[in-house]
Specification:
The chain is mainly beta. Helix content is 0%, strand content 50%.
Length: 111
């Protein structure tokens, strides 16, 4: 089970750190990813960690977003800086090993 936290309302240019805790089972940053879905749009990949521990980022967030991990806390983070109104969406974490999805958490960027 994946439990997300850290969303909310932030002004343009601000920062947020989303967290995705793995409840039960084991944790590995490999195969984990963040997705988002804006109103009226399809769910899209934001960032992922591949099997070679390489991180891939969507072009729209590259340079502003970083995936972090704390193995001891079994938690993956999404550090988002210089947020823009177009980053407004429901964000989901995904564990590619199990196919599990988090419940989704709202991020709203607005002045």
């Amino acid at each position: 089970r994946l439990v997300e936290s850290g969303g909310g309302l932030v002004q343009p240019g601000g920062s947020l750190r989303l967290a995705c805790e793995v409840s039960g089972g084991t944790f590995s940053i490999y195969y984990m990813a963040w997705y988002r879905q804006a109103p009226g749009k399809q769910r899209e990949l934001v960032a992922e960690v591949t099997t070679r521990a390489m991180q891939n980022y969507a072009d729209s967030v590259k340079g502003r977003v970083t995936i972090l991990a704390d193995d001891a806390k079994k938690t993956m983070y999404l550090q988002m800086n210089n947020l823009k109104p177009e980053d407004t969406a429901v964000y989901y974490c995904h564990d590619g090993r199990t196919g599990s999805w988090g419940q989704g958490i709202q991020v709203t960027v607005s002045s």
